[in-house]
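User: Teach me something about this protein's shape.
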Amino acid sequence: MSRPAVIFDRDGVVNLSPGPGYVLCWEDFHFSPGIIEALALCRNRGYVTILATSQQGVGRRLMSMADLERIHERMQAVLSGHGAAFDGIYACTCLKTDPGCTCRKPSPEMVLRAALEHDLDLSRSLLVGDADRDIEMGMNAGVPVTIRIESENPHEVAATHTLPDTTGLAGLLATLLV
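Assistant: First, the predicted structure itself:
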């Protein structure tokens, strides 16, 4: 039977935004306040947790795919210790300018792939992001509930919920995850 999921963006949601740069190594990765509790809550409520992230730093050759995988392995190790590890991680490493890319947000490809691989019911799922492209990706995939974490990114696309930061995310999710 299909299960609902909560799909998370990484930079600016799971970890503090690196600003205009990139998280290129584990030392640059810092969990956002409250995110571990939010992820553990999702898992405790029976929701699959998915990470869908754009990591153009790989495409720009600022880091290798192995570097990205090491960061995600360390992230997963910390989250595992709290019962909060992701069930699936999907990363688009293409450049914005790559005309052959089909996975870059707001494309729903990463979410649709996760849905197939994890038997997800997207009609009962939620998405948490900090940019219009995140919210649009969720909408394009048929995810009905979107949560925007306020950031420096311009906001032209309305999310169903907005929070000033991740500190209140677990509280909001507690009311939405049934």
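Now, about its shape. The first strand starts at residue 5 and ends at 8. The chain has six helices and six strands. If you'd like, I can walk through any region in more detail.
User: That's plenty for now, thanks!
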